[in-house]
Specification:
about 400 residues; Rossmann fold; aminoacyl-trna synthetase; Pro-tRNA-ligase_IIa; ProRS_core_prok; nucleotide-binding
């Protein structure tokens, strides 16, 4: 991403997100919003600057150690830049004194910057100190209902990665310093991944090696298959928290007998910027960036001929094609780029287009000047090249999915 000009380094583990990356991230957030709101999620925004008093009440001020970015205000009060918001959201819900069982389950989520003092930030956006995350927190009337919510969020995550065209594995995981009694990671299999996974060859069982004994080779679920070791990039994590936080902050609701009852909780994270980087890692080749189709910053790049070349007269046609696609196909409005650097050869601009990962590149050359105009269309994600008429081009791009 850095070589392609998508991000630029700032401090260790921190990056400028350049315009194409911001476009891609905004698209990812729209897909996340669709999936979270489909299961009843409500979006909010919580402060990144959180009081140490909240974290001391859960004992995580000490437990998190050097991972927390800590600071003091002018009055010497302690704060942290939050890596996660369990304390904050539970306090918010606890202050809703009229909360009724009729209003549950309550699923609150945000997409915001998070901060973690990584000892060795590396691999670009895969492990940074400042990053974007979607974090959701659920409040339910009972343990049974909370498990149902947990399953619905896991299913939403599975749908999300399916829509992005990414193979994602849900694995049994450790609860770590978040806590709770049940946890799953969502991993994209990749050789560069930092997590070691054990996957059964016979059934659906998979787990992070942290959760199993070091010498375990037989599947604990089916007792038949052998566990195969692989690597993955963690892009999501879910936790069933029970009453760990709601008890501490008295996050209660009125039950059917109108008596105060402590809510059952879950929390669910998605690494927004990490998903972008991980998707590029698993989909791209050495020479070309390949985005998930929904997340490409732009869907189409039109290349006019070089100025002064034999096909120079086709420049006007290229401009018409770019305008026409945005005007004729509503879903491509704002999704078409005209590379007007006509002082450069088409070959050079085509190389740049592949480096940036436009799903479709349309080369407007000599063929566009023929009696039956033809356009060279390169499909980045398949490597296929086609020569299409204008109608054929419209038919092809009419099927492009956008958000």
């Amino acid at each position: 991403m850095q070589q392609a000009g998508l991000i630029h380094p700032s401090n260790p583990g921190c990056y400028y997100y350049l315009p194409a990356t911001v476009r891609s991230m905004e698209k990812l957030v729209r897909v996340i919003d669709q999936e979270m709101q489909a299961i009843g999620g409500q979006k909010l925004d919580m402060p990144s600057l959180c009081s140490a008093d909240l974290w001391r009440r859960t004992e995580r001020w000490e437990l998190m150690g050097k991972e927390l970015f800590r600071l003091q205000d002018r009055h010497s009060a302690d704060y942290c830049l939050s890596p996660t918001h369990e304390e904050a959201v539970t306090t918010l819900v606890a202050h809703q004194s009229t909360l009724s069982y009729r209003q549950l389950p309550l699923l609150l989520y945000q997409v915001t910057r998070k901060f973690r003092d990584e000892p060795k930030p590396k691999l670009g956006l895969l492990r940074g100190r400042e990053f974007y995350m979607k974090d959701m927190y659920s409040f339910d009337v009972s343990e049974e209902a909370a498990y149902g919510t947990y399953e619905s969020v896991c299913e939403a995550y599975t749908r999300l990665f399916s829509r992005l065209g990414l193979r994602c594995v849900q694995v049994q995981a450790d609860t770590g310093n978040i806590g709770g009694t049940l946890s799953h990671e969502f991993q994209l299999p990749a050789d560069i991944g930092e997590d070691k996974l054990l996957v059964c060859e016979s059934c659906s069982f998979s787990a992070n090696v942290e959760t199993l004994t070091s010498d375990q080779t037989n599947c604990p679920k089916c007792n038949i298959g052998t566990l195969e070791l692989s690597k993955g990039i963690e892009v999501g994590h879910t936790f069933y928290l029970g009453k760990k936080y709601s008890n501490i902050f008295n996050a209660a609701f009125s039950n059917t007998q109108n008596k105060p009852t402590i809510a059952e909780m879950g929390c669910y994270g998605l690494g927004v910027t990490r998903i972008l980087a991980a998707a590029i890692e698993v989909l791209s080749t050495d020479e070309e960036i390949r985005w998930p189709g929904l997340l490409a910053p732009y869907q189409v790049c039109v290349l006019p001929p070089k100025k002064g070349s034999k096909a120079d007269d086709a420049s006007a046609i290229a401009e018409d094609v770019a305008r026409g696609l945005s005007g004729t196909l509503a879903h491509l409005k704002g999704e078409v780029v005209l590379d007007d650097r006509i002082h450069m050869t088409i070959g050079k601009r085509l190389k740049d287009a592949k480096r940036l990962g436009y799903p479709y590149v349309i080369v407007v050359g000599q063929g566009a000047l023929e009696e039956q105009p033809k356009f060279e269309v390169i499909c980045q994600n398949t490597g296929e090249t086609m020569f299409l008429s204008k109608d054929g081009l419209l038919d092809l791009l009419r099927t492009v999915e956008t958000v």
